[in-house]
Amino acid sequence: MRIFRKTILTIAAAAMALAAASCQKDDTLYYNNLTMGNIVDGRFVSDQGNTFNIVDQTCEGKLDTMDRVITLCDVLKVTSGMEKEYDVRLRDYAPVLTKNAVKSEDAVSEEISVTDPIYIEQLWYSGGYINMLVKYPVDIKNQTKHLVNLVYSKNEDGGYSFELRHNAFGEVREETESTMFLAGGFVSFPIARLIGKDKAKLVFKWKWYKAAGYGWTTEIKDNSFEYDWKREGFEQVPQNMSLGFKVPSKAE
Predict the structure, then answer these.
(1) Do the beta carbons of residue 36 and residue 127 sit within 8 Å?
(2) The pLDDT value given to residue 101
(3) Cβ atoms within 10 Å, residue 144
(4) How far apart are CA 78 and CA 76, in angstroms?
(5) DSSP state of 13
(6) C-alpha span between 252 and 249 (Å, rounded)
(7) What averages of pLDDT result for each successive group of 10 residues across the chain (252 residues)?
(8) Residue 138 and residue 144: Cα distance in Å, rounded?
(9) How high is the pLDDT of residue 30?
(10) The model's pTM
(11) Which of 137, 174, 160, 135 is nearest to 231 (CA)?
């Protein structure tokens, strides 16, 4: 399984912003463009169907070894003689972990049934995927791998409930622990095919620590978010995110 890259942050995280503004048309071209998409035949194809040819880059690394990625780039010009194809300067990128959602009746294994705290910082829909930026506490002294899954069930009203589950394999934050930091990364779950309609009410659930003052307690709180999903919908990548996920985040 592929591994996230991570950023080390303090445990006092920024306020949650779950939904980005929806739009059907890409109006960010020729500006600093934060875009998610797939690597197809060695080239980056955004969730909107634009092909980006990397003709220059100011960061290290190559994208052609990845399957799905989020990029920050400057769109320089339309590729000569092509439609929806652009020459770009790659400024930064982060790999995206792609996993299928798991049916609730199949999520009975010891690994998947665990619900350790996890924090959804951003959530949006594009390219047939529910995309998330997730974070969770890790101990920098250890090399424990964490497991992240999305478990779903169909509701009586025709909607779907999704629960983001996190197995820290015992690496749980203690109130007096000074070596615990937030790690994480980007993950995409393809959901368009499993939902058998064009519109549906989705509910996302996860567990996270209860806030107190400028930090977090060790008390765990249930969180939920209702989402009006449309098969033809598209949301831009939230523009207020950092791609500073440079170190393996110990999650799969």
Answers:
(1) yes
(2) 97
(3) 13
(4) 7
(5) P
(6) 9
(7) 32 28 42 86 93 92 91 89 90 93 93 93 95 90 89 93 94 72 90 93 94 74 95 88 55 66
(8) 8
(9) 55
(10) 0.83
(11) 160
Residue 67 exposed, middle or buried by CB count within 10 Å (0-12, 13-18, 19+) = middle
Q: How far apart are CA 39 and CA 87, in angstroms?
A: 15
Give me the phi and psi of 126, to 5 degrees please: -165, 150
Q: In Å, how far from its chain's centre is CA 40?
A: 20
Which amino acid is located at 105 in the chain? E
Question: What is the distance between the alpha carbons of residues 152 and 202, in angstroms, rounded to a whole number?
Answer: 10
What pLDDT shows up at residue 176? Answer: 59
SS3 content of the chain, % helix, strand, coil (to 5): 5, 55, 45
With the C-alpha atoms ordered 224, 226, 231, 236, is the resulting torsion angle positive or negative?
A: negative
Per-residue confidence (pLDDT) for residue 16, from 0 to 100: 29
Provide the token pair at 186: 């980007």
